[in-house]
Structure formats: C-alpha cells, structure tokens
TrEMBL record:
GO MF annotation: an example: metal ion binding
Class in the EC hierarchy, top level: transferase
Domain called Phosphotransferase system enzyme I N-terminal: residue spans: 7-127
Catalytic site: H190 (tele-phosphohistidine intermediate), C496 (proton donor)
Protein name as catalogued: Phosphoenolpyruvate-protein phosphotransferase
Compositionally biased spans, kind Basic and acidic residues: 42-53
Amino acid sequence: MSRRTLTGTGATPRAAVGTVVWYDRDSDLGDPDETSVDPPTELERFEDAREAARAELEAERERTAERVGEQEAGVFDAHLQFLDDPQIESGVTSAVENDLPAEHAVKRAFADPIEQFQEMDGRMAERADDLRDVRDRLIRLLTGSERVDLGDLPNGAVVLAERLTPSDTAQLDPDRVAGFATVTGGRTSHAAIFARSLALPAVVGIGDELREVEEDATVVVDGETGELCLDPTDERREEAATASEVDVRTDPVSTVDGTTVEVAANVGQPAELDGVRAQGADGIGLYRTEFLFLDRQSPPDEDEQYDAYTTALDTFPDGRVIVRTLDIGGDKPIPYLNLPDEENPFLGERGIRRSLDSDTELFETQLRALLRAAADGDGELAIMFPLVTTVDELDAALETVDAVATQLDAENVTHAVPELGVMIETPSAVFAAPELAERVDFLSVGTNDLTQYTMAAARGNENVEALRDPTQPAVLRAIARTVEAAHENDAWVGMCGEMAGDPDLTELLVGLGFDELSMSAVTIPDVKAAVQSVHTDEASAHATHALDAATREQIRTQLDE
C-alpha cells in the first residue's frame, strides 16, 4: 500500500492509529422467484419481520440512551415511525400482490422514499440513511442473514464503510474501535453526530478513493484535519497517539494575562448533562429545547419541562445554563404541530416567528416552566430567543415574558425572571444588534445559521462547502460587529455555533472579544487549553488584522501563521 493521504470531512477533533476493517452491509437479493409466491404467506412473513424489527429498535434505543445520550437515541424513534409508515406498508402490500417475495417487496417499497429524501438539503437528506437502516433491518430478518456485530471488533480497528447508519454507529465500542471513515456523509450525518458524542475519531465523505484501501492496512484517522493517512510514518503515528490524550480542566480558565472566558457545552437532552460536565464544561451555553419536543406524539407539559430545566441547573450549581426557547421549523419538523409545507423552510416559519404566532400557547407554557426553574434551580438560568430578526419580535417576546411573570404572580407561584438574550443568526440581526443589545442582557452568535444566511450557502449542501466557512470575511465582520454592539450596550456576548468549538480559532475569538464560547462536549478540553495559551493583546491585534483581510484564503493564512 502506497503512503498517501485521503481527505474528507473531519467529524471529531480526535486522531488515532489502527487497522482497517471493512464493513459491507449491502446484500444482493438476486432475482426473485415470482412463480412460487403466495401473497398471504409473504405478507405474514413481512408482519413477523416488522415485529422483530420493532423489538430490536426498542432495545437499541434504550441501549443508546444509556451509553451515548437521549438525543442520539431519539433517531430510533424515527425508525419506529418509518416501520409503520402507511406509504411503505402500502408499497410492500402492492409489490407482494404482484408476486414479489417479501424481501424484494421491501426493497421496492423503500426505493422511492429513499430517493426523495436524498434530493433534499440539510438534515432532511440524512433521513435517507434512516430509511436504509429500516429497510436493511427488515431484509436481514426476512432472509435470515447474520448481522455483523460491530460491537465485537478487534482492538484498534478502524472501520471503513460506504456509509454507517445510526444502528451501525450505535454498536461501535469506543474502547475497542480506534475510529472510522466513510465514502459518503457530512458533518450533520448521523455517523458524524454519534462520533462526536462518543469522542471517536472519524472522517466522513472521503469519496470513491476510500474503496481502494485494503483490509488490514494500517492507517491514521484524523477527525480534526479530515484526513485518513495510509501507511503512516512513525512520527504521524506518534502524533495520533498523543492527540488522543485529553487533559480535562474542570475549573474555569483564563488567558495568560487573566481574562476569563467561559467555556460551555451545547446539549439537547438531560441525559447528556453528566457527560458534558465530565468534559469540563463550565455550564450550558445552548440548551436546544426542541429535542424535548421531538419524536413523541404530544408536547411535554409544564412540569416535565420544569424538571428538565432544574436538572440542568442542579448539574451546574456554580455555572450558567442558557436555555434556547423552542426553535422549530427549518430542518426540525414536529409532526403534531402541523408545520406548513414550505418550499424553503429555512426562510419560513421557524424560531421566534412561530413562538409569537402559531405556537404561542407552547411558548407561554415553556416560559412558565423556565421562570419557575429560575427560582428553584441551583445554577444561574438564562433564556435565549432564536432567529430574532427585528426589534419588534424581541419586544413582543419580552412582553410575553412579563405577561407570564404577572400570571405566575397572580397564582402565587414562586418564580424569577432570569437573564434574557438573543441569538444572532441573520444579517438583519447583526444590523439591529445595537438596538437588540439595549433590551437584553446578552447576545449569542449562532455561526452555523449566520454563515448560511450571510453567504447564501445552505447547510448540508456539499457543493457550497467553502462558502460555509465562518472565517469568510463577510461572516467574520458580521461577528465582530455583533461583539462591538453587545459591549457598547453593556451586554455580554457568547458564541454557540460550531466555530466556537474549533481550538484553532480560539485565539481569534478571544481577540474579537467573546466572553463565552459554547460547543460540543468533545471539544471542550482542547478549547480550554487553547484559551490558557492566549495573550489577549496579541489576540486582539491578530483579530484586527484578520478583519482587514479581503479573502478567506488570506484569513486562513494569517491563522496558520
């Protein structure tokens, strides 16, 4: 095997060296024997397989929730829904009645839905993998094929595959598997999300070149650089081994000259809290409350939400927990809310727009739970409103908070109004940042959406990946303008997009003036270490220099230097 490097998208800022194990989940059914098909028998076989699949999925969901987290386990709820999808069930029945065996009928019934999801953008495109997972599970059960046990791989295995579905990735044991790499996929794929949750080195979307890598080859998988190094040198192996050693800092950190920067975590479910605390998080910088509403038949009531928020506050008694109010729409549909079918949902009804309109009752219930938790929880609560684009929207949200507080007063319910803030995710919010900061305690930059809207480059669209870089000059200047507006109006400013979790950008962000950075738990130790190596004055000078750059390449060159 020649010594060379394959490049894809890094999913986790970790690296490891190991031995290649190829995983091939596709099976060729061959041509069906239509002469011996008895439709009632085949339909009964399908029903039996569906019940067996249901039992497997429920068991895997429970195991994943315990080992990885409730947010990641939620994907199996979607799989259970696909298992009972009327369109798929009708397709199987129709194919069987046209003399196809059950396994071939399943393959045909899933074909069109998979193709439809593949043509979508962003996270909706990842639903194609969910469908493949359910399809392959049913076919395996119908054909009696043995399931490859990814939980029983040799120590130091680097798994290579065309793709890894949620049930594949959930089997991986981070104590045995060194990492994985896939032909397809992006940073928002289920495989990438699971890798970050497990702190497992991973590179996705390498392309067809990956298929040329041989079984039992020695490789370095570097989830930070997005590289798979074949036949690595001794020096590269040593670098990978060193990169895997993580020094967790449990106390708050400061720059060399004493500027404290809060380093917090992004979470979606209570089950993640212990894990992010173990990584050294100072608090929660983004609690994505929509995950409490997903994959269920009705919304959580006030008491259930109150319990979730107080649990987070009690986990960080000396820290801050920033809860984002319901951010539904875009790539986060909720069936029971009857969301509109929009041509471009990212530019439609989402975030605060729905909270002030069609989801007003949900919004008020959530605020009641939050204000109660602010008084009862051990930590410091803050509330953040998503996708605010006008001052009018913020004023309406603040008025709703006041109205809810008045109502709780009238009911003699213990409560408190905590710090209030706004996410800066659009160019309009950047331009309105001074007026927004006058009205709230803090601003938090969501770089994923801010980059998407500023650069007109959809998240999840690999064709415009370079434009989705938050170090594009236009995005960087928008970020700097937001920080300046916050501080000029006595508000503190944080960042909760993926940019915050890149230790190579920590000095730049400190130089821009950020008071808080929030990220995936796996990157917290690296960012804390980076903060402690920063000289604030030097960082400010570097940031000013970067803001003067005309191109992304110039900024990246400055950062490298």
